[in-house]
Amino acid sequence: MAVLDRIPLSILVIAALTLGLAPFVPEPHIWEKLKLLVAGDLVKSVDIFDLLMHATPFVLLVAKLVRMAVQRG
């Protein structure tokens, strides 16, 4: 958790908005992968890896926000 505490919140927000959503056209890549996951079509290992790579910035951002809320409250 010390590593998460050292990452600035602004960096995580920028990472989630850029790396997490790229490419933006025709739709965010993570959205495409989540639709495949819900439909049960996320079976190729490259697609699973891609989902994990695009989801990581969002997971880290949520973890940081939860950790900040717990430390304050």
Structure description:
This protein is an all-alpha fold and 73 residues long. The protein has one domain. The chain contains 4 helices and no strands. The longest helix is centred in the last third of the chain and has 28 residues, at 45-72. 11% of the residues are buried.
- Residue-averaged pLDDT: 92
Terminal CA distance reads 17 Å
Supply the helix-strand structural class: mainly alpha
* H/E series: HHHH
* Beta-strand residue fraction: under 5%
Outline the low-pLDDT stretches: none
Tell me the helix content.
over 70%
Discrete helix count: 4
Overall shape: elongated
Largest sheet: none
What attributes characterize this protein structure?
mainly alpha; 74% helix; 4 helices; 73 residues; single chain; elongated
